[in-house]
Every structure is written in structure tokens, then in C-alpha cells.
Amino acid sequence: MRDGPGLSESIMNTSNAPVTTIDGGTHAQFATGMRCASALTIQGACKTYKRPNGPQFLALTPVDAEVREGEFVSLVGPSGCGKTTLLKMCSGLMSLSGGKIVHGRTGQKVQPGSYGFVFQVPALLPWLTVFNNVLLPARILGLPIKEAKDRAALLLDMVGLGNAHQKRPSELSGGMQQRVSLARALLHDPDLLFMDEPFGALDAMTRADLNMELQRLHMSQGKTVLFVTHDIEEATLLSDRILVMSANPGRIVADIPVKLPRPRGLAAKKDPQFYAVVERIHQLLDKRTVGRLVP
């Protein structure tokens, strides 16, 4: 990606065809400026719902996008724009009405064992200990238990719960439960990590702590992350790229790279480029500008 004085941003129309690039750059590279293999390829993926007594409802227009290996990509947009729909379609939890989404390494649909999913709520089994909740994917996927136990212990240490193995979910705070959920999603060492507003229900301080934890895990584990959030600053702090979505119908309207160096602490929010990314996304999501997106 070529560095320039402004944001390198591809503005798209409602059919997702690129219209212009502000600084002449491309989106074939990110962060380090080196080409990376595709982890997830989305081609013409769309979603419609049938209505009992009326025409079909188009929830998501055909979307074209790519997520590259090791990237942290966020989906940002208003409620009802199709962020979670697209995320679930990528993971195979929701069917497509058209188009295709394939895992870059196989060229096939994403398979359950190749990804981890962190939901809006932790969804822990209350009768299991923290340790056994983290072990659950190994039992479901039939993985060797000894190795899985070693990895579970390592992951719980990494998320700051090394002393909570034998606790029940009811003994943990909301933030601690979501840490367990994150460790569980990483247990089987997946290529892809899908996250659907995982910190949205947490208080501001806990959310800030988990943002730092997630960033550290992403850097150390090298996972490819597709992350849904309503929080523009959260997306800017965590992401390599941000896909901005608009509603009625759902579509991607911009692809914005974030070139801030890592690791990013709270001081990153004082960086002029951080402010520029946040402001540009606010402009794109302003109801007065959606529908006539111009650079």
C-alpha cells in the first residue's frame, strides 16, 4: 500500500463497484506493505428474506470483499446494515441467498474446525468449570485431550485467568466470562476468528482492558480476525482495515485502512491519523451523506 498524505480509501457504490481511490493507493497490501495471501474471499454474497404476504426483503446487497491472512478487519455500520448477517454468512452459520464465500487456503466453504466464534454474550455452560468450558471445542471436534488441556491452561494464563480454572461462570464478572469465551474460541488453534460485538455489553473500563488484551492476542497468535462493532473508536484502535456498511439495503460503502503502528495504547487516540479515520467514518455514516457518497 502506498503511503500518502491522506486516507487511502476505496469508495463504493451500492453494487460495491469501486468508484475512486483518494490517494491512488490499492488495497492489495496492508500494514507492512507486503502482499499477503487471502484468508477469506467474499464474492457477490447477498441475503434476502421471504415475507409471507409480500415481496422479498433484501437485507444485504451483493458484497465483494477480501480478508487477508493475519489481518484484523472490522465491520462498522448502523443497526440493520447487515454486519452480523455478513459475519454469520462468512462462518457458515447462515446460508447465502447468492454469491459465495470461501476459505482462502482451501477454496471451499469455511468449515467449523477452521474458525473460532466469539458471540455478543459469552454462552458458557453454567454447570462446567472455566477450564472445561474452554476444553469444549476439543471434545466436540475430537481433538487429543492431553494437548488440548495444555493449550487450555496456556490460553487461560494469556487472558489473565490462570487462577480461575475451577470456578463456575456464575462466579465470574461479565468481562471475565468474555475472556473465557475468547480462550475457548482459540483452543483448537483456528485460522479465523469471528467476533460479533463481543464487548458491547461491558462497562467502559472493562471494554478498554479487553481491547488491549485482544490486540495483544492478535499480535502474538497471528490470527485472522473479522470483528463486528458499533464503536468507531474501538474499530480504529483494533483494526488493520475497516469495512464501513450502510443500511436499506445493507452494503459496503468504504474500505478504510488504519496505518497506525502497533501496539496501540490509549495514546494512539491522540494521533491525528486516528482522529482522521474516526471522522471519515462518521462522515460516511451521517444520514445526510449516505446514498451520495463522494470523496
Task: Please provide a written account of the structure.
- The protein has 295 residues and is of the alpha/beta class.
- The protein has one domain: Rossmann fold (3-Layer(aba) Sandwich), CATH 3.40.50.300.
- The chain is built from seven helices and 13 strands.
- The strands form three sheets. It has an eight-stranded mixed sheet with strand order 2-1-13-12-7-11-10-9, sandwiched between helices. A three-stranded antiparallel sheet has the order 6-5-8, covered by helices on one side.
- Helix 2 crosses helix 3.
- It is globular and about 50 Å long.
- The relative contact order is 0.18.
CATH architectural type: 3-Layer(aba) Sandwich
Q: Pick out the low-confidence regions.
A: 1-35
CATH superfamily: P-loop containing nucleotide triphosphate hydrolases
Strand residues, percent: 25-35%
Order of helices and strands: EEEEEEEHEEHHHEHEHEEH
Sheet with most strands: strand arrangement: 2-1-13-12-7-11-10-9
Subunit arrangement of the protein? single chain
Task: Give the terminus-to-terminus CA distance.
Answer: 19 Å
Assign the structural class, choosing from mainly alpha, mainly beta, alpha/beta, alpha+beta, or little secondary structure.
alpha/beta
Count of helical regions: 7
Number of domains: 1
Largest sheet: 8 strands, mixed
CATH class: Alpha Beta
Overall geometry comes to: globular
